[in-house]
Amino acid sequence: MLEWRVSTILERIKKGGDTALKEVINEVESFLPTELKVSETEFETARRKVPEDLKEAINAAGRLDAFHRLEVPGEVEWTDQIGVTCRRRFLPVRRVGLYIPEGAAPLFSFVLMLGVPSMIAGCPERVICTPPSSHGTVDPSILYAASVCGIKDVFKIGGAQAIAAMAYGTNIISKVDKIFGPGNSIVAKANGIVSKEGVAVDLPAGPSELMVLSDESANVTFMAADLLSRAENGPDSQVVLLCESVTTARRVIQEMETLKGKLPRKDIVEAALAESRIIVFGNIEDRIAFANLYAPGRLILAVENPEEVALRIEAAGSVFLGHYSPDSAGDYVCGTNQILPSGGQATAWSGVGVESFMRAVTYQSLTKEGLASLSGTIITMAEAEMSQARAETVKIRL
Questions:
Q1: CB–CB of 214/303 below 8 Å?
Q2: Pairing mode of beta strands 318-321, 200-201
Q3: Do residues 98 and 107 lie in contact, with contact meaning Cβ atoms separated by under 8 Å?
Q4: Taking the mean position of all CA atoms in its chain, how far away is CA 287?
Q5: Which residue from 356, 367, 396, 288 is spatially nearest to 73, judged by alpha carbons?
Q6: Tens of pLDDT along 21-79?
Q7: In angstroms, rounded to a whole number, what is the distance separating the alpha carbons of residues 194 and 167?
Q8: What domains can be seen in the chain, in order of their start residue?
Q9: Residue 96, H or E segment
Q10: In sequence order, what are the residues at sequence separation of 6 or more whose Cβ sits closer than 8 angstroms to the Cβ of residue 350?
Q11: Angle between the 52-59 and 140-148 helix axes, to the nearest 10 degrees?
């Protein structure tokens, strides 16, 4: 049912362009903003409305900038003694689409997590799509974060219709070269469908997840708070605790019950916890093995020797070491990125970084002497693969 619904939306917009896009927005949201693109006046109003303390917090993205600048890949060049040079150069993706999902509160941190590395990579064109409020506006904090990242093109479009607009292009939104950003199951399904059609989508970032791997040194209150922080993210989030005893498991449950009463999003937390688990392994070796099988997007190592355990973690999007490293620090201000693979995809995917917004081009140059030196090898391999035309490209030059 979900695939049919999403496929229908994508196909309508692919064929119908702006007209279909507006029709779908009106049908899905029950209203259509007067203008889909955020105006400069709206940006200016947003800058005035954002509280100064929040502006200062958003401006702390300088830490994100400092860390991500270290990720910029360098050019590689190799020249041998026979006259052959090989080079690999990184270029930015020309036009990227950044999807910022809606939540119970505006997720401006996602703007920073996508906006900062794409800015460092040097992407010439960047657009944001994000679901508007029922009044047809985008939250001021999201627009302020976009301005901090130098992004001027923000559109009031969410869901599968946003993915369709960026993937196929309309008169309102030009087609992008690559789509980034997490979302709910509808957005994840839309990304999956367009990726099969040849549209580049960065990573399978679906519903949020967190695993806590603990030992006897762990603080049960800390762990309870960590699990609730991720459960609060959405009803489809999943949290998992790996601990050493049933006693610890019960104490953590008790702490969560106490802390839940202080949370305004209790219904969301309850829904997420219904699909979450606490698993007891008496042996830490089994806890580590299970963590590697699960491959969580976020993994907290609430253990006495986190550095030692971290060396044995083979699959995780981001790892938080020790009792004073909550995942919220990584979400906001540490400097690492919070857009991470989920659903077990950390076995093959990395979280977002500067390299995500870049592509590599290889170059090679051969002198006449260099080609002559390699000609026998090239001709032999080409003829062995029954590629006589390729062999002739060398023979004709000798």
A1: yes
A2: unpaired
A3: no
A4: 26
A5: 356
A6: 999 999 998 889 989 999 999 999 999 999 999 999 998 778 999 999 999 999 999 99
A7: 7
A8: 2-203+354-358 (3.40.50.1980), 209-347 (3.40.50.1980), 368-395 (no CATH)
A9: strand 95-99
A10: 203, 317, 341, 356
A11: 40
Total residues belonging to the chain:
398
Answer whether 0.90 is exceeded by the pTM: yes
Interhelix angle 246-260/266-274, nearest 10 degrees = 160
Q: Please, are residues 133 and 102 in contact by the beta-carbon 8 Å criterion? A: no
The DSSP element (H or E) to which 99 belongs, if any, is: strand 95-99
DSSP string, 47-66: HHHS-HHHHHHHHTTHHHHH
Helices (H), the chain: 2-29, 40-49, 52-59, 62-69, 108-121, 140-148, 159-168, 185-196, 220-231, 246-260, 266-274, 284-294, 306-310, 327-332, 368-384, 388-395
- Residue found under tokens 């800058």: 47
Say what the pLDDT of residue 205 is: 66
CA distance 346 to 294: 9
40-49 and 140-148 helices, crossing angle to 10°: 100
Residue 271: φ, ψ to 5°: -65, -40
CA gyration radius for the chain?
Answer: 25
Structure tokens belonging to residue 3: 């695939």
The helix/strand/coil state of 100 is coil
Rounded-to-integer distance, Cα 188 and Cα 186, Å: 5
**Amino acid present at 207:** P
Taking the C-alpha atoms of residue 394 and residue 396, their distance in angstroms, rounded to an integer, is: 5
* Token representation of residue 238: 């999943």
Q: Exposed/middle/buried for 388, CB within 10 Å: 0-12, 13-18, 19+? A: exposed
